[in-house]
Amino acid sequence: MNILPVDPAFAAGGTSPGGEKPGTAPEGTAIDGRAARWQSHREERRRELIKSARKAVHALGSDASMEDIAAAAGTSKSVFYRYFGDKAGLQQAVGEVVISQMQRRIQEAAQSAQTPREGLLAMVSAYLQMAETSPNVYTFVTTYSAGEPGAATGGMAATGALGHFFEEVRDMIARPMRAHLGTGKEAVIGYWPTAAIGLVRNAGEQWLATPESPGKPDQETMARQITAWLCVGIAPELETLDPHNPNP
User: pTM of this prediction?
Assistant: First the structure.
């Protein structure tokens, strides 16, 4: 993300930038202009802090404190509290950026698929790839931060950017299913996408948290396994355990 230069006075916590002389514009114009520039600087500074926080969490871990994040960003904890209110607010802000990127990537993957199953595989793969890029950042934006001063009473797991993200993914899953299955399948189309998201998220997060070992599947293998569970369940594995199956 490209960040525009921040005015040094503002970056240091100075007063609102300005410079116009009174009376050089119609009444109200100079004040409105200064307010607009001040708002622009605040937005630039906020984007800069989000970018710095994301880098800090990637390096330090998802449990990095506001003080750790501020130190890595070269500023004070009070600056982050001023812009985001508390750690939950920072998680929300970073999450909006990260999850927006994930959503775009998943949409692109789904659009290139030829069949519903290919679309599911593409979306699961994109989700795992984005999460694996920085497990620390993913965990940071999907885990409620308890115990922080002034922490919010809700978590991103159910609300905010993450909730919107999973709603969008649910709709992306439902659309090709509706076109493929036709009418009369509203029970499946209505409930299955939500259940699918739960499976993908829980399996994916467990996979991310699993230490590297020879038995851990790579990203592509895990994506194909999750897609198979979504499409055919575990029936093939169960058949191998069926004593009445002549071809175990």
Answer: 0.69
